[in-house]
Records
---
Amino acid sequence: MSYAAGTKSLHTSDKVNHDSFASIFLGYASFSARIGRRLLPCLIVLTAVIVLRSMKGIAEARLGNEAFASGYSLAAITFLLLLLGVRKRVSSHQVGSVAIWQRSHHYLGMLCLGAYVLHAGVITTGWLESMLAISFWAITLSGLVSWYINRTAPRTLSTAGPQILRQDIPERKKQVALDAYRIAIEAAGRADSAALADHYQSTLIPFFGFSRGLLFRISPTGTHRRRILAALENRDRYLDDQGKELRRQMTSLVQIKDDLDFQSAIQNRIRLWAGVHSWLLGGFVILTIAHVLVAYQFSSRW
Amino acid sequence: MNYYRTPRSTSKCGKSSTGQSCSLGPINGKCGLQGSTADVVPCKPIRTLHWWNNVIRIAFSLLALIIVSFSWGNFSTRRVVTPGPLSLSHAQLLVSKSNGTEPMLAIDANKRCSACHPGADFQVEQENSGLTTATDVSTNQSQAKRTQSQLCLNCHIDAMPDARFGSPHDLTGPALEQLVQRGDRGESKSLLGRFVGHHPIDWESRSTECSQCHREHQGSSHDLQVMTSQRCQACHKEAFESFSNGHPEFSHYPDGAERRIAFDHKRHQDLHYTKKATGFDCKSCHVQNDQLGAVGKVFRSLPFETACASCHSEPLKSTVQDGMIVIQLPSVNRHELSEAGLDIGVWPEQASQINDGTIPIPMRWLLQAEPSGNTLLNSLPQSGRLSEVDMTSPQQRQALANLVGATKDLMSKLANQGQPGFRESIEKLIDIPSNVETNERQNAWNQQQWLDQFASGIPPDMFRAAMSEWFMPYSGIRSTTRNQSRDGSNSEITSQAASETAKVWLSSQIHSSDDDLLTEPIKNGIDSGDRLLNGDSLFDSSLPKTDNNPSSGPAFRDTKAWDQLSYGGWMIDRQRMAVVYVAKGHADPWISSWIELEKIKNPNVDSTTSIGSISQQCRSCHQLGAISRGSQCWRSERRAANISPITKFDHTPHLSLPSINDCRSCHLLAGSKGDKGHPNEFMPMQKAQCSSCHMANAAGESCTQCHNYHVGNASWR
C-alpha cells in the first residue's frame, strides 16, 4: 500500500471514526428519545392504574361500592377508546393527527386492560358476564394483534418496493400482466426466443393473471417467487442475447408482481384485524349496558 | 378524489379486481355506467371490506341484543348473572334438591337470586323471598319493597336482633348519639368519641347496609367477616395511620367501676399471701383451662369453695356459729307493767324480769308487716333497746305491753300459717307494682320466685315447739287481776287456774282442728312417757327439773349451735329465748334472702344498720351497692357469651406465649382499692404493651381484631 493510499486510508479512517462517533451519539440520542417516548406513556398508564386502584380503595374506605367505582372508570376509558373511531369518521373538524389519536388509543387500551382486571378479575362466571368478558378479551386481543401488525407492517412493506395503496394494486397488477404479455408476444415472434414464450404460456400466465393462494395471503413468502425466477434463468440456454434481454425484463415483471402480491397480503392483513377489532364493539356496548342495568338491579342501594 | 380512495364506500366496481375499473364507480350500489349510452358493458358492483365490517358488527350487536332480551326475565332462575362464586356459608343454601338429598335450607330454584337480591325478581317484583325456612322479620312488608339487608336478616335476625335498625353498630340513633356525646365531653372523651367527628351529625338518618362491609361473590374461600380498617374510618373520622401510630391510649381501662366481689388483689398479694408464705399466682383463680368464656379461658372469679374457702371458711364459720336471731321474746318488767295495770298474759318468767334486750332486725321487719306494727315500733325507742323504755311514760308502758302481745301474735302466725304467713309478711315489706310494664314482668316474676324461695326456709314446727316450750309450762301468772288481750277485751283470771289458762290460751293460739296428730303433743306438752323420746340421747335425765320445766319427763339439754348445729339449721335458744337460724356456711340461701331483703327495703343501707354481723361479713366481700334485686347480685359478673361489646379480647392466644403468660405482665397492680392515689386497683393498660406485637407484619393491627361492629345487648355502656 502506497503512502498516499495509506494517507487516504487514514483520512478515510478518521472520517469513518468521526462519522461513527456521531452516528453512535445520534443513535444513542435517538434511542434515548425513542425509549423516552415509549417509557413516559407507559409510566403514565402505570400511574393511572395505580390511581384507579386507589380510587377503588377510596370507595371501599367510604363504605361505597368499589365495583361501581371501578366499573364506571372502565366505562369512561372505554368511551375514550371509542373516540378514535369518531375521529376517523369526522373529517371536517380534525383535532390532532390520527397518529396521535392512534397512539393515545393504544395506551388507553393498556389502561383499559388494567381497569378491567381491577374491576372483574381475569376469570368471570355467569352467562352475561362471560359473554361480556369474551367480548372484551376478543376486542383487546384483536387490538393487540392489530397494534403489532401496524407496528411491523411498514418495515415489512418497505422491503417490497415502493408502497402502493391497496386500492391501486389491482390496476398495477393488470399493467404488469399486460407488460408480461407483450414481452411474451415479442419473444414468440423470434425463433431464438420462443422458449421464453413457451414458458410464459405454460407457467407465468397463472402467476400474472390470477390472485395468489390463501396460504400466501395469510403468510406471504418468497418461495414461489424464487422457484419462478430459477425456472426463468434456466431458459437462458435456449435464448440468444436478445432473448436473454427479454427474459431479464420478464424476470423484473415477476418480481414486481410478487411485490404487489406481498403488499396486497400485508395490507389486507392490516384491514382484516382492524375489522375484527371493531366487529364485537356493538355487542360489547349492548352487553355493557345490560351489565350496568343488572348491577343496579341486583345491588344493594345505599 | 378518486372514489376508490374513500375507505367508507360500501361497494366498488365489479371490475376492480381485474384492474379494469372505470373512473365513475358504483352509484347507490349500482354500476355508474348502467343506462349510459357509452359502448361499455356495465359491471356488477361488489361489496367493500368496510361494508362487510359493518354487516358483521351489526350481526354481533343483534346477537348480543337477542341474548340479553331472551335472558332478561330469567336472571333469577338461571345462572345468567353470576358475579362470582358465593361464600361457603351461603353457597350451601343453593344446594340443588336434584342430587337426591334434601337440603336443610332449600331455596326455590325460581328465586335463587331474589332470596338475597330484592331487585332480582324481574317478573314478580318483591315477592316473598325464596328461603323456605327463613323467619320473615318483616311480614308486613312481604309484599312491599324490601331492602337487601332486610333479606339478610331473614336468617340472621336471631343472632343480631338489633341489626334490624340498620343503624351504625346496630345502635339506635339516640343511643349512638349518646355514645358520641359521651365522647365529646372533653376529658372523659371515649374511644369512639375520639374517632367520630365532632360536627353535629344526624345519626337518625344514617343507615347502613350489610353489603357495605360483607362482600359476597368473592369465592368460597372468602371470609365474609373480614373488614378492612379503612372501612371503619369511613365514619371514624379521626384517622390514624396504624394501631401503633395514632391509636388512642387505653387511659380508661380498666375503669375503677365497682365489682360485685370486692377482692383486694394488692392486699392479698402483699399481706395475706406473704404471711402464709404462699405464692400469689393469678392463674390459680382466674384461669380455667377446661372452659372457654367470652375472653378466652380466663374468668374473673372462681366459686368460693375453690378459690376462697381454704382461708375464709373457718372465719366465716366462727362468725355465723351464733346464728341469726329471727324471733326473740322481749324481756319486760312484768311487775312494773302489772302495777301500771297492764297484764301481758301468758309470758315466760325468764322474760318477765326486767326490760332488756333488743328487738332483732328480722323480727322488727316482720312486726312492721303487721297492721299496727309500724305504730308500735315507732312508740318504742328508735334504738330498739328495751332497756331505754321509759316506764314512767304510760305510752311507752302500753307499747311495751303491746310488743309482748305482738310477739305472741307473730309467733302464733308463724306457727299456724307457716310459710304462707311468712311470705305474706315479707311481701308486704317490699313494694311490687301491680301494673308492671312489659320489660318489668320478668323482674316481677323473678320476685315471686324469690319470695317463694325465701318462705321455703321457714319451719312452722320450730315455732310451734318454741311456743310449747315457752308458754305451755308457764306457771308464773301470780295474782294478775286483769288480763288485757291485744284486742282490748279484759278478763279476770285466777292464779289457781293459771296453768290451765295457759294451756287453753296456747290451745287457742295453735289451731288443732286441722291436724290433731300434729297439735296433740304440743297441747299436752312434751310427753315424757313417750317411749321413743325416752330413748333419745337428747334427753338429759341428769338435769334438774326446774319451775319452767315442771313436766315429769327428762329435760332436754340446751342446743348449742357450735356443737349440735355445725352444718346449720334452726334452733330454739333457751337462754336468749329466741328462735335462731344458724347459717349453713357460705352462700346460705336463707341468710342471703334476708340481706337481699335488707337491700330491697333500703338500697342505701350501710353495714352498720344491717341485720347483724353476718350481713357485715357477707358485705365485706359482696358489693351489693349497685344491685337491685335478685340472687344474681351475689355472683361475680360474668360476661355472657352472646354479648358482643365494642372491644373484644381473647386471652387464650396471649397466654400461650411464654413471655406474657403471667397475668401481671399486662395487669399491673397499682395499690389497694380505695387507697389514696390509687383510684383503680390496676394500672391503666398501656397501648405499647399491645403494639409491640400487634403491628402490620406481626400479629396484625386491623380494627376488627379487637373491635366488634355488631354491638349486642348494649353491653358497651
Note: Chain B touches chain A through 55 residues (CB under 8 Å).
---
Amino acid sequence: MTNYEQQLQALIDLIGYEKIVKHLLGTESDQVKVGMQLSHDLDGNLTSTEETVINNL
Amino acid sequence: MGINTINGQTLPTTTSTTPLTTVTPSVAVASQIFGIITFTVTKSGGGEYTNPNYGGTSSALGDGTVTVSDTNVDRFLESDSSHLAGTLKISDTNASTGERQFKVRVQEFEDSTQSAIGGVAYTPVYITKKYIRIRGVNSEGDDSADRLGIADINFYTAGANSGTRYPTEDLTAVDSEEGITVSAGHSINATYDPWKAVDSDASNTFWWALGTSAANNWWQIEFEEGTYDPAPTIKSMNIKFNPTGNDAGYFKITGSDEDDHSSATTFGILEITSEGTVLVFG
C-alpha cells in the first residue's frame, strides 16, 4: 500500500466512504478537510487523540 | 420673494416639514493598534445619524501636522449596505509619536449644512511587552474555541513590516533562537508545534490548535529577560493563516510582562479577512 493509499484508508476507516464522497461532491465537511490534512501530514498514522478530535468535529 | 432660479436652473428645495438641524458629532476610539485606529461616530447627546456622510482628518496636537487626510479615511457600509455606518478607520503611519486629534464633520441627507467639528484625542499604540499573545476570538473579542492555524507570523520594529524582524531567525525548535521562546495553549501533536508558525516554511507547515478549548486557543512569543531588557517595541506585524487548519474568524493581540499572562493589555481585535495570504497590520 502506498503512502497515499494508507492515508486515505486511515480516513475511510475512521469516518467512512459516504462523508468523503459528499465532501468531494461539494458539501464541504470539516471532518474530511481536517482528516485529510492530518492523515497526509502523519502518513495515515492517526493516533487515538487525533481520531477523537476528527470524530468530535 | 426669494430667488427661485439662477441662470435658468431651478434651485433645490426641500419638502421636509422638519426644520433642518446640524448636530455636532461625538467621536470615540473603538480600537487601536499599530496606528490602525477605528472610531465610532454618534450624535452628541445620543442617537445615530440618518443617512450621513463624514469628513475626517487627523493631525498632531503639537504642531498641527496632518497625519491622515480625509481622502485616506475609510468609510464602511451598514450591514444591509443601505447607508454609511458610524465607523471610520484610519492607518496613521506618521513617524511622530505624540498625541493626535481626529476631527470629524457630518452631513446628513437633506441637511443643507455640515455639522460643527467633533473630535477625539489618541496616541498611536505599539507593543513593548515580554509576552505577545495571539488568541482566537469572535467578533466581540470573546475567547473562542474556533481553532487557530498559523502558517507564518512576523513582528517588526518599524511600520509597514520594516525594521528588525522577530524572530530574527527561522526557528527549528520552540527556543532555537537565543532570547526567544514560542509556546501555545494547545497543539494537536508535535507535527504542529508552536515553532512551525515561525519556521522556514511559511506555507505548508503550521501551528495548529485543532481540538482546543476556548481558553487554550492561543500562540505566543516571549522576549526573554537577559537578551531583551526591555522587550523590543513592535510597530507592525504580518500573519498568514493556514486555509485548512484555521477556523477562527478574528484574533486578539494581547501583551503582558507576566509569565501567566496576567494583567494583560488588549491591543486589538482584528478580522481574519482571508486565509492562505499574508495579512499585514501596521
Note: The two ends of chain B are 57 Å apart (CA to CA).
